[in-house]
Amino acid sequence: MANVKINLLINKPKYSAHIEESNSRIFTTGEVITEQKDFMRGHGTYLEDGFIKSSVVGVAKQINKLISVVPLKSKYVGEIGDVIVGRVTEISKKRWKIDTNSRLDSVLLISSINLPGGELRRRNAEDEQSMRKLLQEEDLLSAEVQNVYTDGSLSLHTRSLKYGKLSQGILISVSPSLIKRRKNHFHNLPCGISVIIGNNGYIWVAPIVNVEEQGGGFAQCLDPVSKGDRETIVRVKNCIQALSACYVMIYDTSIMYAYEESMKYDVKELLNQDTMYEVGFNAKQRILQLE
Amino acid sequence: MVQDLLSAQGLRMDGRRHNELRQIQCKLGVLESELFTHKNRCDGSAYMLHGNTKVIASISGPKHPSKSSGKKDESFIFNVRVKFATFSKNGERQKVLKNSKKLGEIEINLKNIFKSVILVEKYEKSQLDLNIEVLQHDGGSEICTIVNTATLALIDAGICMKEYVCACTASLTNDGLALLDVSHLEEICGGPTLTIAALPRIGDHEQSVAFIELSQKFYLKDLNKIFDCCQLGCEKIRTILDEAIRGNAYEHVNSDLTSN
Amino acid sequence: MAYNPLSEAEKIFILHGVQDDFRNDGRTRNDFRPMELQTNVIASASGSARFCIANSDILVGIKPEIDIPSPNKPNEGKIEFLVDCSANALLDFEGRGGEELASEITNCLKLTYSSPYAFDLKSLCILPKFQCWKLYVDILILQCAGNLYDAISLAVKCALYNLRIPRVTSALLDGGNVDLVLSDDPSDCDRINAESLPILMTVCKIGDYCIVDPSIDEENCSTSSAVVGVSGNKITTIKTISGGSFHADTLNNLIDLTITTAKYLNEKLLKSLKQEERQMESNKIQKCSFLN
Question: Is beta strand A58-63 parallel, antiparallel or unpaired with respect to A26-27?
Answer without folding.
Answer: antiparallel
